[in-house]
């Protein structure tokens, strides 16, 4: 049995390991001059490779029932065992799993060493420009294979090799590809306040789409000259489809009433200060100035001179700072792809095509888009394992 894997990223390497362990001869075609290049950039070089809380709810897809089956019995324990078998124990920080060494290079190396130990051939520097089915087998780079695994990634971070070519290959085999969008990416706001550039704040963010509050996240928001960034914002980005409002609660630890009471009491002895200085222990000055303007208040007026109504308007501005989102940053800044090969045309337990026998898919090429927190790499390992294992039988 000969298996070809197109793409030597996370999913391609996992599928190569599982196919080779199950006895197939494996050839991995990788366009870059080394395998696992994107892995080196993940988790800020630490590779957040899974999460202690794996569940279908952490993934966006047009066909959710697929993930119920595909992830069944392949939660965090699966990733932990797989990496233990490669000599990479994991450590977990706030649910996020990393290699104990905290080195992404160790993960890429371990996968590569295992492929080589098992006799898989890693053909780097080979950008495949076509593949076809010939009498139940597959022609790749003028060679015949019994099985073909497409693990070419999506379109995020194209400089690292994934330029969307996999979607063309999938379409060539008759598969439907749902329109790809950049995901886990920064949001661009209408008339952003450039004075906020570089400011960070722990906040609660809410995405409003079509007038409905569709998702809420907490974490550090980063304000930029074009809009918003930071993990909670990237989590919301998967929902952007041309229209979205993001409402930021800059002081989520207080509800409206308790914050109004607390600030009123403080104003009794600190009332001579203007709002930015008065709030200095709570928030960055630029955010307070922005909140004053949003509330229609003069930022230079001392807080003690505000009426209760004005103070309440200011509290409202802190708790509901709204941004109209007009777009996302593009593929070079995106961490992953929303959309991809339609899951309705793939078997969830084996990742085999329902249209072409012997053809398999793994990783970001499929219409599976995980949250920040190790979910996308977890999908690469799970789908790669399923594809590799079943391709070999
Ligand atoms: C900066 C950054 C940080 C990230 N951090 C995390 C994180 O911490 N945790 C997490 O879970 N996810 C993270 N992700 C997302 C995660 O890295 C991807 O979802 C995952 O790598 C997808 O794996 P893949 O193998 O499907 O695709 P890829 O890793 O994109 O691999 C696809 C491979 O196929 C090759 N290829 C494509 N076309 C061809 C062709 N025609 N011929 C030959 N080779 C081809 C490419 O060169 C590439 O090596 C991050 C992404 C980025 C960009």
Describe the structure.
The protein folds into two domains: 2-182 and 333-391, FAD/NAD(P)-binding domain (3-Layer(bba) Sandwich); 186-329, no CATH class. The chain is 29% helix and 26% strand. It has helices spanning 10-21, 65-70, 76-85, 104-117, 165-172, 231-237, 256-270, 275-278, 285-294, 308-319, 375-391, and strands at 2-6, 25-30, 50-51, 59-60, 90-93, 96-99, 121-124, 131-134, 137-140, 143-145, 147-150, 177-183, 187-189, 200-209, 212-223, 227-229, 244-249, 321-328, 336-341, 359-361, 369-370. The structure holds flavin-adenine dinucleotide.
The total domain count is 2
CATH architecture of the largest domain: 3-Layer(bba) Sandwich
- Number of helices, where a helix is a run of at least 4 consecutive DSSP H or I residues: 11
* Rg calc: 25 Å
Text of the CATH class of the largest domain: Alpha Beta
The total beta strand count reads 21
Portion in helices = 25-40%
**Strands of the largest sheet, in order across it?**
13-16-15-14-17-18
């Amino acid at each position: 049995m000969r298996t070809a894997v197109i793409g030597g990223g996370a999913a391609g390497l996992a599928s190569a390991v599982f196919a080779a362990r199950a006895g197939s001869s494996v050839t991995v075609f990788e366009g870059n001059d080394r395998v696992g290049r994107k892995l080196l950039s993940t988790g800020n070089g630490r590779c957040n490779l899974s999460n202690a809380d794996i569940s279908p709810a952490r993934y966006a897809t047009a066909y959710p029932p697929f993930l119920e089956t595909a992830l069944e019995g392949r939660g965090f324990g699966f990733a932990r065992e797989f990496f233990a078998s490669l000599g990479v124990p994991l450590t977990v920080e706030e649910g996020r799993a990393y290699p104990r060494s905290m080195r992404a290079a160790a993960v890429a190396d371990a996968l590569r060493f295992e492929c080589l130990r098992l006799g898989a051939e890693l053909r780097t520097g080979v950008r495949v420009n076509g593949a076809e089915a010939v009498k139940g087998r597959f022609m790749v780079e003028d060679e015949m294979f019994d099985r073909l695994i497409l693990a070419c990634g999506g379109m995020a971070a194209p400089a690292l090799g994934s330029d969307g070519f996999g979607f063309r290959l999938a379409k060539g085999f008759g598969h439907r590809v749902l329109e790809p969008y950049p995901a886990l990416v920064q949001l661009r706001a209408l008339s952003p306040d450039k004075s906020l550039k570089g400011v960070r704040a722990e906040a609660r963010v809410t995405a409003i789409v079509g007038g409905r509050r569709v998702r809420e996240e907490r974490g550090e928001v980063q304000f930029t000259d074009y809009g918003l960034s930071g993990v909670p914002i990237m989590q919301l980005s998967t929902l952007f489809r041309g229209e979205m409002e993001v409402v930021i609660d800059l002081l989520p630890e207080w509800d409206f009433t308790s914050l109004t009471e607390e600030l009123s009491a403080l104003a009794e002895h600190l009332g001579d200060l203007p709002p930015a200085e008065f709030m200095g222990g709570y928030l960055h000055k630029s955010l307070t100035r922005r909140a004053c303007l949003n509330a229609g208040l003069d930022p230079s007026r001392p807080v003690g001179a505000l009426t209760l109504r004005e103070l309440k308007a200011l509290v409202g501005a802190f708790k509901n700072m709204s941004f109209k989102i007009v777009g996302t940053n593009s593929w070079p800044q995106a961490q992953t792809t929303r959309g991809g090969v339609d899951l309705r045309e793939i078997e969830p337990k084996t990742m085999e095509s329902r249209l072409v026998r012997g053809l398999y898919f793994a990783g970001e090429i499929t219409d599976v888009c995980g949250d920040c927190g190790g979910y996308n790499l977890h999908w690469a390992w799970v789908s790669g394992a399923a594809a590799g294992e079943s391709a070999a039988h």
